Amino acid sequence: MVSKIAVIGANGKVATQLVQKLANLKTEFETIAFIRDSSQGSKFDQLGIKYSTKIDIIESNLEKIANTLKGFDAVVFSAGAGGKGLDKTFAVDLDGAVKVSEAVKLAKVKRFLLVSALKSQDREFWWNTPLRSYFIAKKYADEIISRDEDLNWTILQPGHLKDENDTGKIEDPLRVNSIANKISKENHDISIPRSDVAQAIIESLRNESTIKKFIPLIRGEIDIKEAIGKI
Question: Name one Pfam family in it (predicted).
């Protein structure tokens, strides 16, 4: 049975990698790429992926988003403000994520997957970094969404995102946070290629065992399918 997937923020770097992979899995997933405006649509046309501009993360109200998402089996939220000021960061990365999760519940969508950030809940980890505002948004979005008992959420928390070729491998998610705790400011290589994050999203969609789980992600030596499958 084909699963109908909505990818919100599909023009972003991780989401673009995800949609490219989903385009090769059309017997398994029917994908709709939600983007800000139609000028971003040509790359999805080339992939044979339908796109929609019906959801404006900031301006669309809850009812409109919920109505748009009716009939989907899963929603992947990978939108971000991209460092375009505090207002947009909090409107997209925080309120946008929470608003869409609420819409998912109203629309009776089975699953909601959120792309967040490594150790978002550990204030000491990120407070004295240039990304403080970004992490504040991620922290509270993650906390609000993960407390919703009526939502089948999965929160993926990748480390530093890299534009590198995929490796197909990650560290055991159960070990990632303890590894990150040992990283010093001089040695902070807790990175992962964006394409590997995209593959982890796909494997999470395939595995209901990832429901109501945080999945921290950094590069490693374990096959992604294997690592996600045993969560």
Answer: NAD_binding_10
153-158 and 169-170 strand pairing: unpaired
Q: Report CA Rg, the chain.
A: 16
Q: Write out the residue range of the structural domain in which residue 131 sits.
A: 3-229
Catalytic positions: 134
The pLDDT tens digits of the residues spanning 141-187 come to 999 999 999 999 999 999 999 999 999 999 999 888 776 666 544 44
Q: The domain spanning residue 194 has which CATH number?
A: 3.40.50.720
**Beta strand spans in the chain (E):** 3-8, 29-34, 50-52, 74-77, 111-115, 153-158, 160-162, 169-170, 191-193, 213-217, 222-223
Work out how many domains the chain is built from and give that number: 1
Alpha-carbon distance values, 178 to 118, 119, 122, 136 (Å): 12, 10, 12, 21
Q: What digits encode the pLDDT tens for the residues 35-70?
A: 999 999 999 999 999 999 999 999 999 999 999 999
- Tell me, rounded to whole angstroms, the distance of Cα 8 from its chain centroid: 9
Q: Which residue carries 């869409």 as its tokens?
A: 100
Strand 169-170 to strand 222-223: parallel, antiparallel, or no bridges (unpaired)? antiparallel
